[in-house]
Amino acid sequence: MPWVPCDPPLPPVNTGRPKITSATAPPSALQPHELGSTDESIVVLRRTFDELGDLFRIHVPSRGTSTWVASHPDDVKHVLVTNHRNYTKGVGIDRVRLLLGRGIMTSEGEFWRRQRRMMQPAFHRRVIERYASIVREENESLGAEWSAAAHGTGSVNVTLSVSRLALRIILRALFDDDLRQLVTDLDHNPFVAILQGARRDTRFAYEFRQLAREVKALVAIRRARPQGRFDLLQLLLDARDADTGETMSDAEVVDEVMTLVVAGHETTASTLNWTWWLLATHPAVAMRLAEEQYAVGDLGLASYADLIRLPYTRQVVDESMRLYPPGWLLTRRSIGPDTLGGHAVPPGTDVFISPYLVHRHPQHWSLPETFDPGHFDPAQVEARHAFAYIPFAAGPRHCIGQNFSLYEILLHCNLAVRRFQLTDPQPVQPALEARINLRTAGDVHMRIEQR
After folding, report:
1. 333-340: long-range contacts (C-beta < 8 A, 24 or more apart)?
2. Can you tell me the distance from the alpha carbon of 185 to that of 23, in angstroms, rounded to the nearest whole number?
3. How far apart are CA 438 and CA 327, in angstroms?
4. pLDDT digits 0-9 by tens, 323-355
5. What is the pTM of this model?
6. Per-residue pLDDT averaged across 232-245, rounded?
7. Which of 108, 109, 300, 350 is the most buried (most CB within 10 A)?
8. Distance from C-alpha of 288 to C-alpha of 208, rounded to nearest angstrom
9. In whole angstroms, how large is the CA radius of gyration of the chain?
10. In this structure, how many other beta carbons lie within 10 angstroms of the beta carbon of residue 199?
């Protein structure tokens, strides 16, 4: 995937869309496919998008019906924002619910709205800044490991390193000092099951849910002996419904905690993994990024506002999430009739939106297959359709942890890029594992040098 700098970046082509008015369904792929159930789904979606355009259907044999796939930003806006109340969570949510219970990722309707309102204050930027010391301490620990590797074997498992980093940060942010009541060693704890076993099957879900018992026990301790702690768990316990004044039940708190463990870890870890691989394969970008970090220096315990001093770093991270969005597939199901792209949508229609396709739409991105942080130059962003970039979804159900994840990622870059250079990734192009999140199918190993 060569990187060719644009001087200046090419403007996006016309983003207008021809008007279609049709009672018929959109075009259908010739071959059926168990969409969303195999790693090949992303290949099938891409091939069908290239053949049929930004709205098509694929027959799914196991369900005996067709799934619509929408990739035009107009349709993204319509489903996720304008008419979002007509769409519920769709295919695959039952499997996720086995893992996460009734957390905000899987719940629906008024219950979801209540939970979202109660949790939102815990993810305000000013609250997130209070975890700066945790982010820094864990990055310093990672830096010590990488420094030893640079002076030792000269290689590092980047995938495992950043996954451990993200997991340790979210666990400490959730449980503060009480984490030691759950585990005695952060690198050998029950939650490390998340880092193991690439296949997220029913067995994995069962084993992971057993961890909920440990969290429930801690919740009981906190209820019995409130001590004015500041962590995400305590914020959930203290949250009250604005209308009724009620708090969450123990079961509701546990489900939200389990959701935050997974979602708060995987999105960040996947983005860091892909970002390091992209930097290693695009040395000109890596050099410019390092120059910005050297110029800024150590941000220390940065506030969220301090991150504005890293504009190019943010462009690099955004471009990484454009090409490899962790949440690569959003599933919805229509409740009532609707119109999408000029076609009549019957009630009960499964509609998929793939950020992976949206982010590579040739009408909205110049050189969409090319890694070029220039895609996020301010002028490019201003000219582009607002819903052509949706790494954290959009609308009322956009990712609640977006600010936390970006804060964590940008601080990692500030601490690590100035100290280390990662090169020679093997394989050159990692295979994709496209399941709940878009991950590399295998761990990415690189040569590491201390700057």
Report:
1. 333/87, 333/88, 333/89, 333/90, 333/91, 334/86, 334/87, 335/85, 335/86, 335/87, 335/88, 336/86, 338/83, 338/86, 340/55, 340/68, 340/70, 340/75, 340/78, 340/79
2. 60
3. 6
4. 999 999 999 999 999 999 999 999 999 999 999
5. 0.90
6. 93
7. 350
8. 41
9. 22
10. 8
Tell me if 135 sits within 8 A of 411, measured CB to CB.
yes
* Token pair recorded at residue 134: 């945790």
| CA dihedral (36, 355, 122, 141) positive or negative | positive
Measured CA to CA, the distance from residue 104 to residue 81 in angstroms comes to 17
Angle between helical axes of 202-224 and 250-281 (0-180°, round to 10)? 120
Cα→Cα distances 128→212, 256, 305, 344, 434, Å: 24, 17, 12, 43, 30
> Residue 29 is encoded by which pair of tokens?
């792929």
Q: Name all domains of the chain by residue range, CATH numbers in brackets.
A: 41-450 (1.10.630.10)
* pLDDT tens digits, one per residue of 289-298: 999 999 999 9
Instruction: Give the pLDDT of residue 2.
Output: 39
CB atoms within 10 A of CB 114: 19
How many Å apart are CA 207 and CA 184, to the nearest integer?
Answer: 19
pLDDT tier at 10, thresholds 50, 70, 90: very low
Mean of pLDDT values over 11-30 = 64
SS3 for the chain is CCCCCCCCCCCCCCCCCCCCCECCCCCECCCCCCCCCCCCHHHHHHHHHHHHCCEEEEEECCCCEEEEEECCHHHHHHHHHHCHHHEEECCCHHHHHHHHCCCCCCCCHHHHHHHHHHHHHHHCHHHHHHHHHHHHHHHHHHHHHHHHHHHCCCEEEHHHHHHHHHHHHHHHHHHHHHHHHHCCCCCCCHHHHHHCCCCCCHHHHHHHHHHHHHHHHHHHHHHHCCCCCCCHHHHHHHCCCCCCCCCCCHHHHHHHHHHHHHHHHHHHHHHHHHHHHHHHHCHHHHHHHHHHHHHHCCCCCCCCHHHHHCHHHHHHHHHHHHHCCCCCCEEEEECCCEEECCEEECCCCEEEECHHHHCCCCCCCCCCCCCCHHHHCHHHHHHCCCCCCCECECHHHCCCCHHHHHHHHHHHHHHHCCCEEEEEEECCCCCEEECCCEEECCCCEEEEEEC
Residue 4, pLDDT > 60, answer no
Residue found by looking up tokens 């815990």 in the block: 122
Least confident of 51-60, 92-101, 275-284, 331-340: 92-101
